[in-house]
Structures are given as structure tokens and as C-alpha cells.
Amino acid sequence: MFSTWPAWVFAGLVIVTLIQLFYYLWFFQRLAFYVPKPKESHRDNAVTVVVCARDEAENLSNHLPGILVQQYPSTHEVIVVNDNSQDETRYLLEGLHKQFRQLHVVELKQEAKLIPGKKFPLSVGIKSAKHEVLLLTDADCVPASEHWIQKMQDAYSDGIEIVLGYGAYKKEKGVLNALIRFDTFQTALQYFSYALADLPYMGVGRNLSYKRDLFFRMKGFSSHNHIPGGDDDLFVNMAANRTNTAIVIDPDSFTLSKAAGNWATWIRQKYRHHSTGKYYKPIHRFLLGLYAFTHFLFYPLLVVSAVFYDWRWALGAFLMRSLVQAIVFRKSMKKLQEESLWPWYWLLDIWMFLFYLIFMPALWRKPKASWK
Predict the structure, then answer these.
(1) Is the pLDDT of residue 363 over 80?
(2) Domains in the chain, please, with CATH?
(3) Where are the beta strands (DSSP E) in 45-161?
(4) What is the DSSP string of 157-205?
(5) Interstrand relation of 47-53 and 133-138 (parallel, antiparallel or unpaired)
(6) 129 closest CA partner among 177, 76, 85
(7) Confidence (pLDDT) at 372
(8) Above 70 in pLDDT, residue 349?
(9) I need a surface site. Which of 60, 117, 204, 311 has the fewest CB within 10 A?
(10) Rounded to the nearest 10 degrees, what angle do helices 5-22 and 282-308 cross at?
């Protein structure tokens, strides 16, 4: 059967398809069929929301009020770290502070030496926090509801120190917006599913919560202060374990951001984010790398097998993977309110071949030092 090279290519397609099915049936179905366990009691923890901003006057004007008007009955504060802004950020925050007494502003007027990125201002914000439960988001994010704080903090129970949330992008017209939202969905599908499989490996700074005590026990970002990115995913990769991490996928717990408006901006963002993956724990690098590698190989092997071996067998492999994928994507997209992407999932999945080609250099490219 395997006496010719087309037969060996088809054998490779079979192996790649089986590996892909393993990921969908072992990992990703966990999010697709996830049903949160009913809680016997609910907590109202004291919460500190931390936002770092550099030249973000417009974003803060549009989004910070959504954080300040949260309907949360217990004690909470909102800390905004103004990191050397040269725009109107300071005056905007002074005005908001007069209206919202729970808003506290930390002004940074000097750059941190040898600590690139957002880690220094974020560390200052965390050290300034009065409460144990920290809730982190970005200046360009707005909570999807007035119950964001309530929903995120309610995931804490005995032993839980990290809560992973979903940072979605607003739906707008255009192909680029669909690609960005699909990429965001794919990322969330993986980090939520891995967490449910007791292998948490990352979170996103647009919507992330953890205990202040955990931050200090892990010595903050000291182990990766030299890396510009990673204030969210590298910290979670270092601090999360099978017993201390929970997820929240209630739509009221989401945050929303405006997606990049052009290709150049998005590519720069993705390069910065992908540059931290090589610092993950070995087991996470292996699992994420194997999935990406087999995903990348699937379509070239499919085309070659269909042309040079037997199109019927190749079609069978494609249909088997597509059926499982369609079910998992449909249910997962519904949970994350990305249903509008589902009719195009097959086309977006093909796009991922080009996605890997574009962003593969990020694995060895040195990231930009600035976080803005």
C-alpha cells in the first residue's frame, strides 16, 4: 500500500488528521460541552481593578466609565496607572476622580530601566492595591455588562487563585475583523480547554483576575522582566496549576475591544503576542506546537493526496475532521457569542495555513521593547 510516495503522503494525512481529532475530542470539546457547576454559595470579595494607560485619553474617556459604573455591592476600587502619558490622560483622570471616588490614580513620571513593556506600571498598580482579588483589563477595553466585576470575582472558591476571562473584539464589517475575531476565538478555545483539562497555560490581560498574594509569592514578573510581553500569559504560565485556576464564560463577564483597523497594526500586535510562546513550560510548548504543526500540514497533505493518491480517501479524511470541527466550533462559538463566524469556519480554518506562514517568524524574532 505504501510503495509509492503518494501513498506515504496519504499516510501522513491520516496521522495528521488523527492528531487533529485528538485535540478536538480530548481538549476542545471540554469548552464546547462545558456546563459550570452550580455554586452552593456566592461570595462578594473586595476587588481592585487595575488598568495601565499610556497616552490613552481617548480610550479611557470611552471605556473607563464602563468600569466605574459597575453594579457591585461589595467593596471595590479602580486603580489607573498613568504611565508617562504625554496627552490629556492626567486631566481626564482628575475629572473622573471628582465624580467617582472609587477611582485612584497612580502617576508614573519616570521610565523603568531594564524593564520594557507594561510590567513595571502593572506591578506598581498591584502594589498599590488595597484588596486581595485583582481584576486586570486594558484601557481600550470595556466590560460587556455592568456585572463584569461580580461575575469574574464569583469564580473564586477555596483554592482558586487565578480566573481566566474572555476578552472579545467588537463585531464590525470587513474581512480583517472576522479574521481577528476568529483568531481570538481560536486562542480562547485553547486556553479555556486546556484549563478545563487541568493544564492551564495562559490568560489574556484584557480580562484576567488573580490573587495579590499569588503575585507576590511568584515574585511578580521578576523571572521574565527582560521580556517586553508576557505580563498576562507568561505570568499565568508560571503561576497556574491544575487546582488553582478557574474559567468564566458568562457573557456578562466578557470585555470588549475594538479590533485593529488595518493589517499592519494587527500583524505588529500578533508578533508581540506570539514572541512570548517560546518561554512557556515545555509541556505547553509541545502541545501547542504539535497542534499548530499538524494544523499547518493538514491542507497541503490533503491537496497532494487528493491529486496524486485517491481523492475519495482524501475527502473522507477531510469530512471526518470537518464534522468534528463543525460540532465543536458551533457549540464553543455559541458560548463565546461568536456565532456569526460559524458559517465561515471552514474558510477561516483554511486561512490558518497562511496565518502560520505569516506569524511563524515571531518564534525567533526579538520583540519590540515598548508596550505602546
Answers:
(1) no
(2) 5-32+283-363 (no CATH), 47-277 (3.90.550.10)
(3) 47-53, 76-83, 103-108, 133-138, 141-143
(4) -TT--EEE--EEE---SSHHHHHHHHHHHHHHHHHHHHHHTT------T
(5) parallel
(6) 76
(7) 59
(8) yes
(9) 311
(10) 140
Q: What percent of the chain has pLDDT over 90?
A: 83
Give the strand order in the sheet containing 76-83: 103-108, 76-83, 47-53, 133-138, 208-211, 162-164, 245-247
Using CB atoms within 10 Å of the CB of residue 168, give its burial: 0 to 12 exposed, 13 to 18 middle, 19+ buried. buried
Neighbours of 114 (CB within 10 A): 7
| Structure confidence by residue, pLDDT tens digits, 219-271 | 999 888 888 788 999 999 999 999 999 999 999 999 999 999 999 999 888 87
Q: What is the pLDDT of residues 144-164, one digit of tens each?
A: 999 999 999 999 999 999 999
Q: Report the amino acid identity of residue 211.
A: K
Backbone angles phi, psi at 35, to 5 degrees: -130, 115
pLDDT confidence of 275, banded at 50, 70, 90?
confident
C-alpha cell of 20? 487533529
CA distance between the termini of the chain: 56
Query: What are the tens digits of pLDDT across the range 286-298?
Result: 999 999 999 999 9
C-beta separation of 339 from 182 below 8 A: no
CB atoms within 10 A of CB 31: 24
**CA–CA separation, 276 vs 176, rounded Å?**
24
Rounded to whole angstroms, the Cα distance separating 348 from 365 reads 26
Alpha-carbon span 82 to 85, nearest angstrom? 6
User: Cα separation of 201 and 163, whole Å?
Assistant: 12
> From CA 91, how far away is CA 89, in angstroms rounded?
6
CA 329, CA 338: separation in Å to the nearest integer?
Answer: 10
Confidence of residue 113 (pLDDT cuts 50, 70, 90): confident
> What one-character DSSP code corresponds to residue 41?
S
